[in-house]
Design goal:
Blueprint lengths: L2 H14 L7 H7 L4 H12 L3 H19 L4 H7 L5 H12 L3 H7 L27 E5 L2 E10 L6 H11 L9 E5 L16 E9 L10 E5 L2 E9 L5 H16 L8 E5 L12 E7 L2
Antiparallel strand pairs: 1-6, 2-4, 2-5, 3-4, 3-7, 6-8, 7-8
Helix pairs in contact: 1-9, 4-7
């Protein structure tokens, strides 16, 4: 079993045992890893500890149960191993900014940051943070922009966008914006990590024969089949979405990564880097 399968197996184990008194050590044992090594690996891939992941999933399951079941509020908390009504209410309010009773009364079903169930009936797809991708085919796109080196952990995109904005007239900045991570051997499953260096490109969509401004470059974004994810939240939480896509969704999706660029698209739904309601479309090429 390879590393990506191990993470997927761990998540499925957690899903199957949300209503059992499991702890991080149980998860490590379920995938036949030492606790010391596995908890470090899980955190590197998923961006949080095993314990935090379990707690987060239990809170999301509690939110679902409050809206979709007739269980008493206390029974919902106890069934997911919160020791007391007070500890359940406190943890729930810290996450959702309201008590479980208020949540049920308002009938809220989808909130930013929710972790949806990681287990479908056919065990084919894991979803995370509301991320269930749309599979679509896009045409080739021509872009004008700036190329640079970067990593996921040390992303230079914001800085490069600032440089780009200074070079382009304001009337051209109303079109869709693209941030592209150009494909390379470091993007393969067995080599990728958040410190993997790759070439990137930021720019705007243009027509094939449009003139190019000084000091900028043209890039053709190949068309084809893509899985489009929607990241909802601030830019500084974007890395968590990438942790999920690489560490959980791809290993269980049944799709193969195609040898084309993955990219981000910023539309009118992107309302600012620090806006928790902001949305970024993320496209991953698939076969």
């Amino acid at each position: 079993m390879n590393d990506k399968q191990i993470i997927a197996k761990a998540i499925v184990f957690i899903e199957n045992n949300l209503c059992q008194p499991i702890v991080a050590r149980d998860v490590a044992e379920a995938v036949s890893y030492s606790y010391y090594h596995f908890h470090r690996y899980f955190q590197a891939i998923m961006g949080e500890t095993i314990g935090n992941y379990i707690r987060s999933r239990r809170l999301t399951q509690a939110a679902w149960d409050l809206v979709h079941s007739d269980k008493k509020v206390l029974d919902v908390g106890l069934s997911l191993y919160f020791e007391t009504a007070e500890s359940f209410t406190r943890a729930f309010k810290d996450r959702y900014s309201m008590t479980p009773s208020e949540y049920r009364k308002n009938g809220i079903d989808v909130l930013i940051g929710n972790r949806q169930s990681a287990q479908k009936s056919d065990m084919s797809i894991i979803t995370y943070a509301g991320l269930s991708p749309e599979i679509l085919v896009i045409p080739e796109i021509y872009l004008m922009g700036i190329r640079f080196k970067t990593t996921v952990s040390g992303n230079k995109t914001v800085t490069m966008w600032q440089q780009f904005n200074k070079k382009v007239p304001p009337d051209l900045l109303t079109t869709k914006r693209y941030g592209i991570f150009e494909t390379s051997e470091t993007c393969s499953f067995d080599k990728f990590n958040t410190d993997s260096e790759s070439m990137a490109f930021v720019g705007i969509e243009i027509s094939k024969n449009d003139p190019v401004l000084n000091d900028l470059q043209v890039k053709k974004l190949c068309g084809g089949k893509y899985a489009r994810f929607v990241h909802r939240g601030t830019v500084d939480t974007l890395i968590q979405t990438y942790h999920y896509i690489w560490g959980s969704w791809f290993p269980k999706s049944g799709f193969e990564l195609a040898n084309r660029d993955d990219f981000e698209c910023y539309t009118e739904r992107f309302t600012g880097a620090n806006d928790s309601n902001s949305e970024i479309d993320i496209y991953f090429p698939i076969e």
